[in-house]
Amino acid sequence: MKKIFLIILGGLAAVVVAYLVFVVVQISLAANVFGPGRDTPDTIGTKIYFFGIKPIFPGMVTKVDTNVVQASFALTRQQYMVGEPIECEFVLKNISDKPLFCVMTSPTSDAAVDILESPAGVRLRGHETSSSLVGPDELRPGEMFRWPFWLNRFVWFKAPGTYKLRLQINFGINRGKERKGSTFSYVFAEQILTLNCSPNDPQKFHAIMRSLTNKIVHSLIDEESKSESALCAIGFLETVPYLKECLEAPSVWGRNDVIQALGDIGGEEAAAAIESALAKPMHSESRQYAEQQLREIRKRLSRK
Q1: Using CA atoms, how far apart are residues 136 and 93, in angstroms rounded to an integer?
Q2: What contacts 300, CB < 8 A, 6 or more positions away?
Q3: What residue spans define the domains of the chain?
Q4: What is the CA radius of gyration of the chain?
Q5: CATH assignment of 202-302, given 1.10.150, 2.10.25, 1.25.10, 1.20.59?
Q6: How far apart are CA 203 and CA 6, in angstroms?
Q7: pTM for the structure as a whole
Q8: Do residues 270 and 300 make contact, with C-beta atoms less than 8 angstroms apart?
Q9: For the segment 223-253, what is each residue's pLDDT rounded down to a tens digit?
Q10: What's the rounded Cα separation, in Å, for the pair 246 and 249?
Q11: Start-to-end CA span in the chain (Å)
Q12: In CATH, what number does 33-198 get?
């Protein structure tokens, strides 16, 4: 009995070791996936990029069902400017004759983007890996659900030209109110989108940043939330003064997201913005997070 137990234990250990080796190899192959504002690969973003779409081992996804729900990505526009937040919508439509429950996905953390064509020097950037589940409690037959997100979190749109991107996502659907194995299945979606970026116009860029900042500082929570996520997604050094203004405003809803955006951008200017905010009253949780991001920025600067 002991011998059988040791054999089973050894087999499990071998599987774990093989999996870890596979992870390390895939991350090393993903040298073009960088975290925002950093000069080393973002291993968290890289992991999600490689493993957030298709199962690692056969059998992890029980069923891919294309007769239940349609999934697609849609750009709100085809033409943007370098430095502008680029909005994309993830759209679900129930094409079955029964309601669906627990549609689980979060495009910001679960979608993967691959660059097929782009101006020279453009690369992917690491993106947020939120564990939140997004979706309607119920999606009736024929009903659609739209979830907007920002493509800037996946790609550095730093050069003018044409971008051809492949977007992929998988998500779970439940055809019953209870999560039972017989009713739970997965849907895999893939789509290619093309957009054009014109050269950055400083006057227009700063007008967009000012508009977003004013909405964040002075508007109601729904509009503030969308503007805040747009401003935080851009990742350009030129957004630091506007992020600083939002961080120091007394009623900013997504304060930690603003801190994270400054941490991702990095550099002396972002560090100074966080230090300035820390000199003023701040909620204890946000203060701890700001101090953490400041330490990370200082650590990266010390390595240069």
Answers
A1: 11
A2: 38, 39, 266
A3: 33-198, 202-302
A4: 22
A5: 1.25.10
A6: 69
A7: 0.72
A8: no
A9: 557 888 899 899 889 999 999 998 887 765 5
A10: 5
A11: 57
A12: 2.60.40.10
